[in-house]
Amino acid sequence: MYDFAYRKPATLAEAVQLLASDPDAKAISGGHTLLPALKHRLNKPSMLVDLTGLAELRGIRREGNAIVIGALSRHAEVAGHALVKEAIPALAYLAGHIGDVQVRNRGTIGGSLANNDPAADYPAAVLGLGATIQTSRRRIPADEFFLGMFTTALEPDELVVAVEFPIPEKAGYAKMKNPASRYVMAGAFVSKGPMGVRVAINGAGPCVFRQKEMEEALAAHWSPEAVAGIKQSPEGLNSDIHGSAEYRAHLVTVMAKRAVAAAG
Ligand SMILES: Cc1cc2nc3c(=O)[nH]c(=O)nc-3n(C[C@H](O)[C@H](O)[C@H](O)COP(=O)(O)OP(=O)(O)OC[C@H]3O[C@@H](n4cnc5c(N)ncnc54)[C@H](O)[C@@H]3O)c2cc1C
């Protein structure tokens, strides 16, 4: 690990100011992605700005027809929260199946979204429910947030403050996980509700994406059979030691079917 300065601001304004003052400064929340990168000397920030003291980034609440989840909410908190379990059980299920118990008790939704790992779980729920990301300077619809592998619409000094999830009529999530890390090989989050019918695929490609052909089929007829015959092209999908692009393409259909069945 390289040396770095450490600051723990008490307000969101102070955190943003610290990040804006130094282009090599980096925010840290749960540290479950950033700390391993620092330990392997893959990242060399001049300063770590610890967000865990920011009250503005905390809390899970209902606002009208949406559940708003503060960026510092840990995966275990989301999985166990009564409001989330009642309003969007598929989201509680997803959070409860991220990594292992240590990861779920340290990792945060804000950190996961800012990182945008292609194999992460939360991006599927955010895109699959048509959520809105509230940041320190604006509101970003899910369709404009995920730009590519480990890339989002966030500016370097812009922080995720909360995520606003519209409450769906139905939603379901299924993933094939890597047995060692529990990261997603391919997953599908499906929903029907105020944002229409949405199908988000994670793990399979370099970035979470919407499967429009499946969305159209489900809009016409909501059932697992509606997506069973839809084949995902392997072109552009990830191919690595864990699985080929063809295998991941096959998994997309299987996971979508399971997600629709889970949604009911
Ligand atoms: C063994 C292991 C297994 C895992 N398995 C899974 C899995 O199955 N599924 C899955 O989805 N994830 C998995 N993860 C990742 C885990 O969920 C991470 O905790 C998460 O991706 C990052 O959240 P964090 O709070 O730890 O972020 P940090 O490590 O603190 O930060 C990650 C990045 O986000 C930035 N950041 C942090 N908070 C904010 C914010 N509020 N606004 C803007 N930028 C911010 C940081 O600057 C950094 O670039 C796993 C991790 C480990 C170590």
- How would you characterize the largest beta sheet? 5 strands, antiparallel
Round the Cα radius of gyration to an integer and report it.
Answer: 18 Å
The strand count comes to: 14
Overall residue-averaged pLDDT value: 97
Side by side, the strands of the main sheet go 4-5-10-6-7
Give the strand content: 25-35%
| The level-1 CATH class of the domain at 170-263 | Alpha Beta
| Percent range of helical residues | 25-40%
Shape: globular
Which small molecules are bound? flavin-adenine dinucleotide
Structural class, judged by helices and strands?
alpha+beta
* Full CATH superfamily name of the domain at 170-263: CO dehydrogenase flavoprotein, C-terminal domain
Enumerate how many helices there are, as a single number: 12
Order of helices and strands: EHEHEEEHHHHHHEEHEEEEEEEHHH
Q: Architecture of the domain at 170-263 in CATH?
A: 2-Layer Sandwich
Stretches where pLDDT is under 50 for at least 5 consecutive residues are none
Q: What does this entry look like structurally?
A:
The chain is of the alpha+beta class and 264 residues long. It has twelve helices and 14 strands. Among the domains are: 1-54, Uridine Diphospho-n-acetylenolpyruvylglucosamine Reductase, domain 2; 170-263, Enolase-like, domain 1. Helix content is 36%, strand content 25%. The strands form four sheets. A five-stranded antiparallel sheet has the order 4-5-10-6-7. A four-stranded antiparallel sheet has the order 11-12-13-14, with helices on both faces. It is globular and about 55 Å long. It binds flavin-adenine dinucleotide. Residues 26-34, 36, 51, 71, 98-99, 103, 106-108, 110-112, 114-115, 117, 120-122, 154, 159-160, 181-183 line the site of flavin-adenine dinucleotide.
